[in-house]
Design brief:
About 45% of the residues lie in helices and about 10% in strands. By secondary structure, it is α/β, with parallel strands linked by helices. The radius of gyration is 19 Å and the shape is globular. One of its GO terms (biological process) is deoxyribonucleotide catabolic process.
């Protein structure tokens, strides 16, 4: 497809209106078929290392402390202290007030510091609060911002409000030196109710300037699912075909095992293609997933599972 310039604000409503409806039965059948794919031992080892490198190691609890974040950041630097060949993770994701703590531990390591913002997880706050939330995180050293859309506005049909908020938060991601924190837009797909809404929200976020579209906060059930992620991968693939800009995808919440992660990697490869098979364009929002990946990695290396004390408890 011949690419064109990205849509202006006045063009977004017609763009969303023209989106085709989602064949729910076909989408779920395709996701189920991809989930049955198996990979051999050598490919599995490669997939495990790739999945580790795609993890946004996350702690987003009210009881988070500086000590917990320091521990998490240290784990991001050396996921397996006994094996220096183990890849580092992509990022550490924390609340805005703990960004500086994570940045202090990570230093200049090529690991992102992601911060949730915009009244996470509900997104229900005045625009000024959302902008201040984002600005504080960026000034503290966040290299990535995970914002939540106003699902109430979206479901009420006020798409322009959602679009304008994404544009404003993207602007708040800019730094005085001209650089900008990358913006991940959380759709909270478990609250959007239909696949058609997920597709519409995905295109809206991309048109407003998202660098990534993300399924969930991890605070709502269901969180990430394979059919929803497949649909979002189709959206970023089609958006690049139409407008020439590549956008990442981040499923978050509920992905806990190596088997699950491999299903997602197969889906990325078969849907969007090799261009998305990198931490630059695909991430897992997870905490417990990393431990299972590390244990499965050791199993492939040694032929046996590690004891219960092999990995840290996050």
């Amino acid at each position: 497809m011949t690419t064109t310039s990205e849509p202006a604000a006045s063009d977004v409503a017609p763009l969303l209106t023209d989106l085709p409806g989602v064949d729910a039965v076909g989408l779920e059948a395709r996701a189920a078929a991809l989930a049955t794919r198996s990979i051999k031992k050598e490919a599995k080892a490669t997939a495990i290392d790739l999945a580790i490198s795609m993890v946004d190691l996350t702690t987003l609890e009210g009881a988070d402390t500086p000590g917990k974040v320091r521990s998490l950041a240290a784990k991001a630097l050396r996921p397996d202290p006994s094996d220096p060949t183990c890849p580092q993770v992509a990022a550490v994701c924390v609340y805005p007030d703990l960004v500086a703590t994570a940045r202090e531990v990570l230093g200049d390591a090529p690991i992102g510091v992601a911060s949730v913002a915009t009244a996470f997880p509900s997104g229900r706050a005045p625009m000024s609060v959302k902008v201040d939330d984002t600005t504080m995180a960026v000034e503290a050293g966040a290299s990535e911002i995970d914002m939540v859309i106003d699902r109430g506005a979206f479901l009420a049909g006020d798409l322009r409000k959602v679009y304008d908020e994404i544009v404003a938060i993207r602007a708040a991601c800019e730094r005085p030196d001209g650089s900008r924190a990358h913006l991940k837009v959380i759709l909270e797909t478990g609250e959007l109710a239909t696949y058609d809404n997920v597709r519409r929200a995905s295109w809206l976020a991309m048109a407003a300037g998202a660098d990534f579209i993300k399924t969930s906060t991890g605070k709502v059930s269901p969180a990430a699912t394979l059919p929803v992620t497949l649909l979002m991968l189709e959206a970023v693939r089609d958006y690049r075909d139409a407008f020439g800009r590549q956008i990442g995808v981040k499923p978050a919440g509920g992905i806990r095992t190596t088997k699950d992660a491999i299903k997602y990697l197969v889906t990325v490869n078969e849907t969007a293609g090799l261009d998305w098979m990198t931490p630059t364009w695909f991430r897992f929002g997870a905490s417990s997933l990393l431990n299972d990946l590390l244990m499965q990695r050791q199993k492939l290396t040694t032929g046996r599972y590690a004891g219960p004390d092999y990995v840290t408890i996050d």
